[in-house]
Amino acid sequence: MLVQKKPGIALLLATAAALVACGGGGGGGSSSTTTTSSTSSTSSSTAASSASTSSNASATATLVGSLGATGWATYGTGTTGGNSATAAKTYTVSTRAQLIQALYGNSATINADGSIASGSLDSSAKIIYVSGEISLNTNKAGTELTADDYLTYANAASSTCASYGYTTTAALWAAYYAAYTPSVWGNSTAVSGTPESARVCAANIQKKVVRLSIPSHTSIIGLGSNAKIVHGQLLLDGGSSTSVVSNIVIRNISFEDAFDFFPQWDPTDSTTGRWNSAYDNISVNYATNVWIDHNTFSDGSRIDHDYPSVWTDSGWTGSDFKVQHHDGLLDITKAANYVTASYNHFHDHDKSMLIGSTETASTTAENPSVLKVTLHHNYFQNLKQRQPLVRYGVVHLFNNYFTGDMSSSANYPWSVAWSQAQGAKLYVENNVVQLSNGTPTGANVYKGSSGSKTAACVTTTSTSTEYCSAYAWHVGNILNENALDAGGAVTGVTTTNVTVSSTPWYAINATTGAPTAKPSDFYTYTPEATSNLATTIPASAGAGKL
């Protein structure tokens, strides 16, 4: 099925731009102009459905623009997404198949199981308006898929997968739990054998369905207040540090429940073992100049609390061993650079945001020269940790609002807000943290520890100890209506190998000596006072708030 196109949209957008500035602040970036479209679209032989199929979609909603990026996303070439798209490259989509065709310039062929058989991602400027709810967990016919469906598809596609003998996921998991229970398998080696191989078969089919790659020069924008993408992952990843995607804008969409039917038990993770899942709502890996604004992220109705440990062995029954079906909400890793996340609502999740996925530096992935990220005016609500966790990143957090519940009985009991690890360089100003059911201290908000990989980083990057080390500056932050910091440091928190400095960033191309730069050396911004953030941020952050 070809994706519906909106004739005359260029004129509409020009009119909208003339009427309203497309800023990234609360309420900015929208127009009072509304559109209704009911245009027929004929599919080609490579499209998702037959050539005789017509698409008639209608949407009446406030237009949101692609312009107004702030922070690191403005650096270098800037971030405008598909703002220059022609009418032919401006789409309204309401199904997964339509979204795929918009991303692929109507060149995709979709298999019966929902995986993409062929086609080329379209890197020309495009605007994709999302109307209503789209599930990424559907087959070609648009049917919502189950775990058993993926196992069936895997067995049909591969005689090797079929030979493992599992026809239901209930049987697969019964064998998996029996084989890898800690008292049987131990925790010194990764799992292997028939149940794990069968799990991988089904997991690989799910990955081909629920993970969609986003090409350069793309804007994905929700129409109105109810645009939603559920049960899958948007992947911003060009594949390598020399082949990045760039200039991507994602605004005004609720992202919910990127559910992994086939998480893996890793006995070696954290020394005692953990369940690991594969999907973030959005992953920004090999990508530059990205603006993620006014979106909402959560686990939806399938919360982690509902999936407790399956192990009965003593010592493996606690909350650390719950079966993890969700990974991050928004993860920014590898060689991602010049990213801004603003006015988003992140809520009800465990590991919320990761900036840098490893402490081992690489010239082609995580290292001190990349992962430049700005987080401002976001609402972090009912989250456990990683708000964010930063490795190597050059990160600016300002005017964010954090709320959480310290009670162990909470669905997502609070652990910590932002954490600083190997080589991270943080500038943290005028944020507000409000915690209930406890007596929080600075240690409940910030953790800083770096240094174990510094020497290896110096060798790998051919730079300096200072460049590979961690620096931080905290100023004007509030915890439960009291000052969180003094003299640039969080009060009462002891860090390891983190240097307090009011200029914790390096100038571009500088790699030696102490850092000498701060956010205002790279972009213009004005931090707000903290007094009203508890009111203004919940009112303005998230989808439907433009």
From TrEMBL:
Keywords: Carbohydrate metabolism, Lyase, Polysaccharide degradation, Secreted, Signal
Region (Disordered): 27-52
Keyword Phosphoprotein: no
Low complexity compositional bias, start-end: 31-52
PROSITE patterns on file: PROKAR_LIPOPROTEIN (PS51257)
Subcellular location: Secreted
Source taxon at top rank: Bacteria
One Pfam entry name: Pectate_lyase_4
Signal peptide annotation: 1-23
Domain Pectate lyase: residue ranges: 174-439
Any one Gene Ontology molecular-function term assigned to this protein's record: lyase activity
SMART domains documented for this protein: Amb_all
PANTHER family reported for this sequence: PECTATE LYASE 18-RELATED (PTHR31683), PECTATE LYASE 21-RELATED (PTHR31683:SF18)
Family the entry assigns: Belongs to the polysaccharide lyase 1 family.
Protein name: Pectate lyase
